[in-house]
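DATA SHEET
Item: assembly model
Revision: 1
Owner: S.N.
Input lines:
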Amino acid sequence: MARHNALQMLGRSGNPTLSDNTFRNEGATVGQPMTLEGTVNKTGILLALLVLSATYTWNLFFQAGNPAAVMPAAIGGAIGGLIFALVTIFKKHWAGVTAPIYALLQGLFLGGISAIFESQYPGIVIQATGLTLGTLASLLLLYKLGIIKPTENFRLMIVSATMGIGVLYLISFVMNMFGSAGIGFIHSNGLFGIGFSLFVVAIAALNLVLDFDFIEQGAEQGAPKYMEWFGAFSLMVTLIWLYLEMLRLLAKLRSR
Amino acid sequence: MDANTIVFGAIIVLSLAIFFYIGKFRASSKQRERDDKIGWEKSKFGNLKLLIWVMVSALGIALLANSFT
């Protein structure tokens, strides 16, 4: 009963994939509960799947030598990934199936985009990957040691900033649709554009802290085993966003 | 192999090693035994947040696609 109550107490992280109902209504844990080790291992599986499919579009680009060759697979992967992400969010107990498919599809997208960036700025992909994973490891250490302490105010700040970025992207997109150049500084390589990218990278990185806290509390409260897949999926969503923003930031710096 | 690959390759390997090792341990008591932990039962934004996430994802994809077409 105590465990059931504890499950009812858990809800939402800063990562939008983790909703207020994430652990709620799951009932008492039947069988083995969610563990930190299981979540970390499943994150490893998702990362491996992502790299595997990314290799396909990466090779496809460098064999063909033009972006048009990878665009169908990359865009298809992005749209498919979005669909499977939504399915995973609404049907958390399917995460064991949908999260690996999501990783494979996102890999197609990331492989294609990364290859295009690499052809324009050689060496940029390994830099973006290193910085993304370096940020992951650093923030994990800071979180585990209790140096970064996620509080309600911290969550409020990160969620608000994430929403602000979303609204800005939306405005830029709508302006583009009407033939305007959009919000220039988002894509510019000037100081303002680089400052904006740094801000977005910081917000994406701090979302990782909320993911860690959510996973830690899920494991502590004995959430169902399939939540390991869901926790790993949430971490992947944030990592993919962080990686893309790192690519954009580095591209801006290199194009100056 | 150039210096860029060696340096960032080493960062990748080290970071993955840290993640897969440290990630399996519980956070320090300093982190777990706080009075100001996030109250996960409270949802400040509900479904609006999900909507924003979908918009950001879709638009991010569109913006990136636009950049290369």
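QC remark: Residues 2-15+30-254 of chain A form one domain.
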